[in-house]
Design goal:
Strand content: 15-25%
Strand order of the largest sheet: 3-4-5-6-7-8
CATH class of the largest domain: Alpha Beta
Radius of gyration: 19 Å
Shape: globular
């Protein structure tokens, strides 16, 4: 199957290419990267902590999947016979409570109320997979939304933090979003032959706010530096067989940068 037409499950199952998640893990903990991505010993744990984020993504990016991929439990609590019967009747679906759905729909309304958000998401392809090679290493990216003619990528982020720019700057640092932005833009540029801008569409569960932030040139430069460092480390570890990092991600020099608000 071509990665360009892969499903989300196929994308994550593919082990031939490195992703931004893998590169971040490699910089932070090479030994764990080796266990999970080289030896394949990653244990998939059942967790519902990302279900609200996934549901919000679906509401915005793939609303046709809401009915097929999710089930809504209308009971008072996720316990008892009714809950067990509900789980048994909806195997394979993400299970959400009515309060969870209400929170996600509040974020959807915030998105729909921001004209700039609707405009930037217009004429985009959703959940679009791309692949390339950087320094002879296969890499992949699955963009939440991409406008090929408009030359930009949009990453939809739900956060427990407030939606203001200072809080989001801290979030970018905490989760190394600049690495992902740079990798996605590079792969898109290799795929389509021209540069791409990168935007974050931020949806806050703390204040039900919706904001759009554009990665500045400095932010992308820092991201590119992290990508280069991760790929160099991957080559070094692969050649030596020693999966260690003398300069872990937490010690990388952080550049001062701005996230431009739209």
């Amino acid at each position: 199957m071509s990665l360009l037409t892969s499903t989300n499950a196929a994308y994550h199952a593919d082990k031939t290419c490195l992703s931004s998640t893998g590169l971040k893990l490699l910089l932070a903990d090479p030994a764990r990267f080796y266990e999970e991505n080289v030896l394949g010993k990653r244990v998939e744990e059942e967790s519902n902590k990302f279900d609200e984020g996934s549901f919000t993504h679906s509401l915005i990016l793939e609303p046709e999947k809401v009915a097929t991929d999710y089930a809504i439990f209308t009971g008072m609590r996720k316990q008892g016979a009714a809950w067990e019967d509900f789980k048994a009747a909806n195997v394979g679906k993400k299970l959400l409570s009515a309060p969870q759905v209400n929170r996600c729909e509040a974020l959807l309304r915030a998105y729909q109320a921001l004209p700039a958000a609707l405009e930037i998401m217009n004429y985009t392809l959703s959940e679009h997979t791309m692949m390339s090679t950087i320094v002879d290493i296969p890499v992949k990216a699955r963009a939440d939304a991409i406008n090929v003619e408009g030359r930009y990528i949009v990453d939809v982020k739900t956060t427990a933090m407030p939606s203001d720019i200072e809080c989001f700057k801290a979030t970018v640092e905490q989760y190394s979003y600049q690495l992902s932005a740079a990798l996605y833009a590079k792969i898109a540029s290799d795929t389509y032959g021209h540069p791409f801008d990168f935007y974050w569409l931020v949806l806050s569960k703390a204040d039900n706010g919706c904001e759009i932030y554009k990665a500045s040139a400095a932010t992308m430069s820092q991201g590119n530096a992290l990508v280069a460092a991760a790929l160099a480390l991957y080559k070094k570890c692969t050649a030596s067989g020693k999966w260690t990092n003398e300069k872990p991600l937490s010690t990388f020099e952080r550049l001062k940068y701005e996230i431009q608000e739209v």
